[in-house]
Amino acid sequence: MESVRLISALFLLLLVSTGSSASHGSRRKKARKPCNNLVFYFHDVIYNGHNAKNATAAIVGAPSWGNRTILAGQNHFGDLVVFDDPITLDNNLHSTPVGRAQGFYIYDKKDIFTAWLGFSFVFNSTEHKGSINFAGADPLMNKTRDISVIGGTGDFFMARGVATLSTDAFEGEVYFRLRVNIKLYECW
Amino acid sequence: MESVRLISALFLLLLVSTGSSASHGSRRKKARKPCNNLVFYFHDVIYNGHNAKNATAAIVGAPSWGNRTILAGQNHFGDLVVFDDPITLDNNLHSTPVGRAQGFYIYDKKDIFTAWLGFSFVFNSTEHKGSINFAGADPLMNKTRDISVIGGTGDFFMARGVATLSTDAFEGEVYFRLRVNIKLYECW
Amino acid sequence: MESVRLISALFLLLLVSTGSSASHGSRRKKARKPCNNLVFYFHDVIYNGHNAKNATAAIVGAPSWGNRTILAGQNHFGDLVVFDDPITLDNNLHSTPVGRAQGFYIYDKKDIFTAWLGFSFVFNSTEHKGSINFAGADPLMNKTRDISVIGGTGDFFMARGVATLSTDAFEGEVYFRLRVNIKLYECW
After folding, report:
1. pTM, to two decimals
2. Chain B residues closer than 8 Å to A185 by CB
3. Origin, by domain of life (chains A, B, C) (predicted)?
């Protein structure tokens, strides 16, 4: 009798453990509770011909009807911008940066503002060491939009997840500030 | 005797459940059966100086020997193209789009046509909401070629998989249509 | 008594198997032992106006103060380079290539050399068939730096991991050779 009870307990444990493991190759639902949840801000100052000292981003590709100093018409369609932006913990451009957001965005639609992003958060502080890599579409007129966390290194080794972007502020075509809520669902 | 039989059954179940779970950090083979399988077409109309109204893509980077209106010689090596292309369920350019393919490709080889792709499928319909993000090499003279699904959002939250591209049609250097068979192997 | 011993053994096995499975949505630590470990070298010869025959890479985007023949000042900030580089097993540029490294890098910082990389290793030999896709920040003055393996196809189907880059050699602004140590932690 004792062994039957033990077996039952074991059986239960087995079911629980199986249920919580990965569902590769199946449609089984996994818990959508992040294993890590971080919020940062980053600040993009686009070079416009007059702000070489402060600019953190520059147009490096443009359609044939555009140039690399002024963002093109038709919702900047075709403009490729490279950036190295400070990351801060709050929404103040002058707060001490905790890392750098580095990569590019390309405006990719004529009718409305939309961009495609490929970039990294690079950390080298006492708080965080390592990088988080992002890719995805940014329909930037939406209040919030989701892109993918496609990998990470160091403290964020093998991370995967979703980052929710929102435009926290912008000033004409020179400055914008993004709030990034990073939710990791795979942590190692 | 009864308990021994129970234990054997349990043991078998354990082996099965272990076999189907993820093999992080090991070489164990997982079932390669997709948890989601989708087929779409997308249509790229490249701006050539005369089709501003219909164009869905434009050259925004080119090597020093090229320009941004005509695709460069040497198999377009160095041309960077940004696109916002309609996605359809069948191979008809004029079918109602079910989403947009947005991102870029760069021709990256002098001897033959090959490109590197970074883009997203963006859906906002009753059928699908969310995005699928892709990256990979596209040796476009091959009948089929595989790129990676590197992430997803919304209905495709945390998706991973492989997308098989094939060129369904092309017209000179102005139009091409890709068939995309998306096979997801990680679904949440 | 026999059954109790059997149950104990089973219990142990269960714990082991559970511990090694994926920790989606949890902070549980996984073993950081690669399921595949590969070392390659790739060789980048940048077009500079005089080496059209040998060049494997070319500048295709530049900031407004730069051009597409000479890498820009300020640590090449804003230069976008497309490449199709030979991959070799040792550090000899003239060894028989085992594949091609194809994609792009963008110099993205004014103060020091740093780039953002998106590229693939494409193999089609008796040894390896398929591709490995990479993305991430490359602070190239560091002795080693980690980027993400974001996916793979063929022999590297669904691969994920980390690649450690180191600059094995460089000659002025025309040639560099990277050593890439690919450590996969998800193998299918």
Report:
1. 0.87
2. 158, 188
3. Eukaryota
